C-alpha cells in the first residue's frame, strides 16, 4: 500500500506549477480540475479543484480554511537540491532548515499557494 494524498485547491494549474517546481516533479494528468504530481514516475500528490464535484461530490467545504491541521510530508533524496529549489521558488517558508530532534533529520516547512503546510525532509 502507498499513500497518494489529494488536496482541494483553488487553482489546480497554479498549484501544479508550484509543486512541480518545489519537488522537481512532473505532471501526470494536467488540467484545470485534477492533476497528479509525480516524482520518478510515482504519484506523490493529487490536486483537485475545490469547486469540482465530479462523480464523488466535493472533497472540501469551500467556506473552511484549506489545510487546517494537515501537513503534507515529502522525503527528498537530495535535500540540498530541494532546499535550493524552494529558495528559487520564493516559497513562503514557515520553519527554515532545521534538525528535527525526534526524527534526527533536517527538514524545511513551507506553505503552498492554498495554505497547505508542506514539509520537505531528508531521508
From TrEMBL:
Q: Which SUPFAM superfamilies match?
A: Glyoxalase/Bleomycin resistance protein/Dihydroxybiphenyl dioxygenase
Its domain of life reads Bacteria
Q: Which InterPro entries match?
A: Glyas_Bleomycin-R_OHBP_Dase, Glyas_Fos-R_dOase_dom, VOC_core
Q: Which PROSITE patterns match?
A: VOC (PS51819)
Gene3D superfamilies, per the entry:
2,3-Dihydroxybiphenyl 1,2-Dioxygenase, domain 1 (3.10.180.10)
- One Pfam family, please name it: Glyoxalase
Task: Give UniProt keywords alphabetically.
Answer: Dioxygenase, Lyase, Oxidoreductase
Give the VOC domain ranges: 1-123
Which GO molecular-function terms appear in the entry? dioxygenase activity; lyase activity
Record protein name field: Catechol 2,3-dioxygenase-like lactoylglutathione lyase family enzyme
Amino acid at each position: 500500500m502507498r499513500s497518494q494524498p489529494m488536496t482541494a485547491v483553488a487553482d489546480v494549474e497554479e498549484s501544479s506549477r508550484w509543486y512541480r517546481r518545489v519537488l522537481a516533479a512532473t505532471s501526470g494528468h494536467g488540467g484545470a480540475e485534477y492533476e497528479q504530481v509525480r516524482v520518478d514516475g510515482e504519484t506523490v500528490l493529487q490536486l483537485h479543484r475545490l469547486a469540482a464535484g465530479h462523480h464523488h461530490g466535493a472533497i472540501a467545504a469551500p467556506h473552511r480554511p484549506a489545510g487546517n491541521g494537515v501537513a503534507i510530508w515529502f522525503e527528498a533524496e537530495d535535500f540540498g537540491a530541494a532546499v535550493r529549489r524552494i529558495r528559487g521558488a520564493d516559497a513562503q517558508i514557515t520553519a527554515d532548515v532545521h534538525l528535527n530532534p525526534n526524527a534526527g533529520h533536517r527538514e524545511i516547512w513551507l506553505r503552498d499557494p492554498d495554505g497547505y503546510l508542506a514539509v520537505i525532509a531528508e531521508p
